[in-house]
Amino acid sequence: MKLSEGVEAAIHCATLLAQLDEERTMPASALAEYHGLSQSYLLKHLKQLTAAGLLESVPGPHGGYRLARSADAVTLLDVVLAIEGPRPAFRCAEIRQRGPGALEPKAYAKPCGINAAMLRAEQAYRAELRKTRLSDVISDYQASADPRSLAFGCAFVERHQRP
User: Fold this and answer.
1) Pick from 11, 35, 28: nearest CA to 152
2) Could you give the residue ranges of the DSSP H alpha helices within the chain?
3) Is the distance from CB of 19 to CB of 84 less than 8 angstroms?
4) Cys staple from 118: which of 90, 91, 104, 155, with CB 3.0 to 4.6 Å?
């Protein structure tokens, strides 16, 4: 399974926004700069996160983005679904019913075993993402990251957050 790069960008942006002081925002330009992404590319994903209720977009000269709820209340599954949508990654096209050996449709009364196995895997994957909150990701990072990276991130947030 391959998720789009937008999922990675969205999770990283959400974890950075979780570091803002209460009621503060960060502009999309700063988020793009921090992650080395184009602002136009990132804005598409920030809009998806906003539409899903994970971020708030604040207009005006002191505007920008912030989490719409606490990092404890946002799961990785929330972010993945906001970017990728709710449909399963595997979509069975019933190719077993095509080709020269295909039988009449009533011969395929049982669900496709491959589809069933893939959907079970998807459920397991989503269950794990549902258990993992942004706050968990942040805690793990803070416990294992190089102190220089932590210091840079904190200083960046301090410089770029808006009142």
Assistant:
1) 35
2) 5-17, 28-35, 39-51, 76-84, 113-131, 134-144, 147-160
3) no
4) 90
**90 within 8 A of 124, measured Cβ to Cβ:** no
* Distance (Å, whole) CA 130 – CA 107: 37
How many residues are listed for the chain in this entry?
163
DSSP code, position 75: B
The label of the residue with tokens 């895997």 reads: 121
32 contacts 42 by C-beta, under 8 angstroms: yes
